C-alpha cells in the first residue's frame, strides 16, 4: 500500500488521491461501515466518525505521521465460518485500547499490593455483558461517569441510572449496582483530587500559611458560609466562641474534631504530575508528546506551535527546559483559535 502521500502538502493532488485511496481501503476492511476510527493528528484513532467527517479531519488536521502501520484500517476481514473468531480478536484489540491508559493509574494505586492490582485488571477487562464486543466493564463505567459530569447529574440520579441500566442489560452484566461501588472503581484508577478552601472573592487559597485562618487576610470575608441558623452576626461574625459564656461556636464531634462549617468557596485541585507520568507511560501518547522534536518538519514554515516565536523564545530564555523534549508547555496550549479566518467552527487547534 502506497504511503508516500502522508507527509505531502494537503492541497496537493497526491494528498487528495492518497486520502481517497485510504478511505476506500478503510471501508473495504471495516466491520462497521457507518463509523470508523479517525487517523487525523487530533483524533489519533481514538474516536470514530463517518467517512465524510474523517475526510474533513484529514484535510483540516492532517494525517497522523506516526500512524505508519494501518492496523485499524488496512487489515482484511474474512467473512467465513470463523467470523466469530475474527470478531473476538478485533474485540480484544478494542478492549486493550480502551483500558490500557486507565489501568496505568490503577497500577500506581496498587503499588504495594500487586495481587489487588491483578484482580482489578481482570475485573476491568471483562466484557460489559456476555457477548459485548464494544465496551469493557471499565470503559463502560468511565463513559457513563463522563456523562454524569457533563450534565451535572446528582449522585442519587446516577445510582438510580446504574440500577435501571443493569435491568436493561442481559443477565451477567458487570455494571456496578451502586454509587459507592462505582466510586471505589474510579478511585482505584488514580483519579484523585484535593479540595482546597478559597476566599469568596478569590483572594487567597487556605493552604500553607493560610491553612488555619477563619477569614481572608486581604478582604476580611469569613472562610465559612453564614446560614440562617448562624447567630454570630455583625460584630460577632468572626468569633469562634461566645464572648459571654465562653462556649465554642462549633460542634465537637465524637473524635474531638471541631466541625468548622461549610466553606464559601472550594477549589477542586487535580494534581497534574501523576497524570503527566501516566501519559508518558503510553507508547503512542509519548510519541505524540515529543512529536515536535522528533518528527516535525522544520523548514521555516508555521505548521505547529513549535514553529512560533513564542516557543523559540522559551527555548532561548530557558535552554535547560528547551533541551528536554519531554517538557510540556502548558502555557502555550490554546483552544478555539481558527488560523484560517473562517466562520466555520469545525476546526480547532
Automatic annotation (TrEMBL):
Could you name the domain of life of the organism this protein comes from?
Eukaryota
Pfam family name, one: Transpos_assoc
Instruction: Using the record's annotation, list all stretches that form the Transposase-associated domain.
Output: 3-73
Protein name per its UniProtKB record: Transposase-associated domain-containing protein
Amino acid at each position: 500500500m502506497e504511503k508516500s502521500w502522508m507527509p505531502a502538502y494537503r492541497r496537493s493532488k497526491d494528498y487528495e488521491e492518497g486520502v481517497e485511496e485510504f478511505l476506500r481501503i478503510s471501508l473495504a476492511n471495516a466491520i462497521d461501515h457507518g463509523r470508523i476510527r479517525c487517523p487525523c493528528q487530533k483524533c489519533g484513532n481514538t474516536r470514530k466518525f463517518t467517512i465524510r467527517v474523517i475526510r474533513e479531519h484529514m484535510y483540516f488536521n492532517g494525517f497522523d505521521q506516526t500512524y505508519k502501520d494501518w492496523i485499524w484500517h488496512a487489515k482484511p476481514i474474512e467473512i467465513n465460518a470463523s467470523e466469530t473468531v475474527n470478531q473476538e480478536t478485533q474485540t480484544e484489540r478494542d478492549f486493550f485500547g480502551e483500558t490500557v491508559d486507565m489501568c496505568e493509574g490503577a497500577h500506581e494505586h496498587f503499588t504495594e499490593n500487586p495481587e489487588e492490582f491483578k484482580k482489578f485488571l481482570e475485573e476491568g477487562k471483562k466484557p460489559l455483558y456476555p457477548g459485548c464486543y464494544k465496551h469493557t466493564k471499565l470503559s463502560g463505567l468511565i463513559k457513563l461517569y463522563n456523562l454524569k459530569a457533563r450534565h451535572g447529574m446528582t449522585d442519587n440520579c446516577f445510582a438510580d441510572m446504574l440500577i435501571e441500566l443493569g435491568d436493561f442489560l442481559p443477565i451477567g452484566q458487570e455494571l456496578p449496582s451502586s454509587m459507592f461501588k462505582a466510586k471505589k472503581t474510579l478511585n482505584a484508577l488514580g483519579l484523585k483530587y484535593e479540595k482546597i478552601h478559597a476566599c469568596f472573592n478569590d483572594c487567597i487559597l487556605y493552604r500553607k500559611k493560610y491553612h488555619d485562618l477563619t477569614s481572608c487576610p486581604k478582604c476580611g470575608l469569613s472562610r465559612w458560609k453564614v446560614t440562617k441558623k448562624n447567630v454570630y452576626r455583625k460584630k460577632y461574625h468572626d468569633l469562634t466562641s461566645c464572648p459571654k459564656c465562653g462556649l465554642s461556636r462549633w460542634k465537637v464531634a465524637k473524635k474531638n474534631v471541631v466541625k468548622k462549617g461549610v466553606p464559601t468557596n472550594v477549589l477542586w485541585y487535580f494534581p497534574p504530575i501523576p497524570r503527566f507520568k501516566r501519559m508518558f507511560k503510553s507508547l503512542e501518547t509519548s510519541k505524540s508528546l515529543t512529536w515536535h522534536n522528533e518528527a516535525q518538519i522544520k523548514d521555516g514554515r508555521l505548521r505547529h506551535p513549535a514553529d512560533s516565536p513564542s516557543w523559540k523564545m522559551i527555548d532561548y530564555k530557558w535552554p535547560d527546559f528547551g533541551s528536554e523534549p519531554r517538557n510540556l508547555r502548558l502555557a502555550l496550549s490554546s483552544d478555539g483559535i481558527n488560523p484560517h479566518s473562517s466562520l466555520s467552527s469545525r476546526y480547532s487547534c
